[in-house]
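Appendix B, Record 12. Input sequence as logged:
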Amino acid sequence: MRRLLAIFAAVFLALPLTARQQTKDLDISVVVGRDGTATITQRWEVYVNEGTEWYIPLSNLGHMTVDGLEVSENGVPFESVGRKWDVDWSRSRKTGKCGIVPKNKGAELCWGIGDYGDHVWTVTFRVTGFILGYDDADAIYFTFVSPGSASAPDHVKLTIVPGFDCPQWTYDNTRVWGFGFYGDINVVDGKVVAESSESFGYSSKLVALVKFQRGLFDSPEYMGGEFQSLLDKALDGSSYGDDNFDWMAVLFGIGFILVTFGGLFVAIYAAIASARGYKWKKKIFGRTKVEGWYRDIPLEGNLLAANYLLNKGKRFEISAPANNLIGAYFLKWVMDGAVRVEPDPKNSKNVNLAFVTSTYSSDSVEEDLFRYALAASGSNLILEKGEFEKWSQKNYQKFTKWPSRAVDRGKTWFQGRNYIQNDGSFNLDGQKEACHLVEFQNFLKDFTISDQREAVEVKLWKDYLVYAQLFGIAEKVAKQFKKLYPAEFEKLAQSTGMDMYTLNRTIIWSNNLSTRAFGQAVAKAGSVSGTGGHTSFGGGGGSFGGGFGGGAR
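Logged structural output:
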């Protein structure tokens, strides 16, 4: 292991360390006038080592116009040449000057780089027609940072404020959405504030959609129709309210961050250590690698205690997703007979859940989840395809708080047995119990390759599959069980009122349902209703000011 790490370290340290062109920080302040004109001020903190000028592309302006470009550095204003800027001028001729290059349906704002090295530029310009008018609302829909930049910023903050006396912007009269980057957007102290939480990549952008109560502005540019038409356009392809999440963009962003900040070696080490089993926190498990088997149900069968360990016990802070616990509970209810599995008359590949009781658990956390599912099932008490997802979208505020409550409740199980010490570490008895969970996971993963395996009674297999769902391996375990013990698997299915095919579908269904429902609730915590929170990387199409490129050239 040490030799392997040494090799990776040698390769990593051998990489060239020459400084790269970099936008360290971009702070954007927007002051909106009563007439709908915006004054935009950008503070660029950059390192430049190539090119002759810096430029900002502004495309798709439509009815909007851009003028009044001013650039300064260290308090010294640049000379403006207006719309006579020539991109072919030399670097020396561009130094200390700024100008605008007109483009079809847009413009490029340009200024000279001057000497290579570090710079802090302050750039100001006006956009007329910035506020859009609809029958039921006024709005902003603008791309403040374009994709395709030669130097994507490490950090961006956008602040939009009114430049006139008006009712304070709150969620009573203002709603917000953010697209194209990872971060948050909120209404704070009468301002709209968006801020990135991760570095921008080549495909990142910053698009803000703001909805205002109709009448805050005197003369917005009337667009016709209702605001919903604009919102629908912006949400298309976004992760707000659905599971259409841009995983390729996520992977791109993660890779960009790792390379940018030199975290590649750390990531490689974490991946190798995790793959080889060294992935558990020593203060909880007493060791970083837990081997061996444990055949009995661990932690007295307490799923919340198990969930706590899976969330808090990983060395590299890779938590078990909340949907695994949700899926485990759904499967548990089926196994216990609290709900009955019925075929979906509309699609033979789906199943429905019919509730046979209105209450189920004495534990408030599990009982709340049961009530959520029951409420989603509607008046016929049959949970059909899409119903829990729709319920989670409408009730995302309480649903997204449920996982943290589950983790807290799991912690109390260990506290009640005095397993957790003052410094948060587990004592020896606690470590033993914690290890049993991982040993049980090892058993479920590996029992098929052992020559010591024995047939397991059907009652235990019900619990085994529930825990397998918590570990995220229920489909694999069920497949192994069916292959090795087909008769017992059939008995298990019959004991729950199903055939083997339906049991398989139920296991798959419980996983998929929980993943979609919780994923959509989390996405909507960013809020289709516009009440702030996380942004969406996807979506934001058709915004004004949207361009491509920028930076040094």
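Residues 98 and 111 are 4 Å apart (CA to CA).
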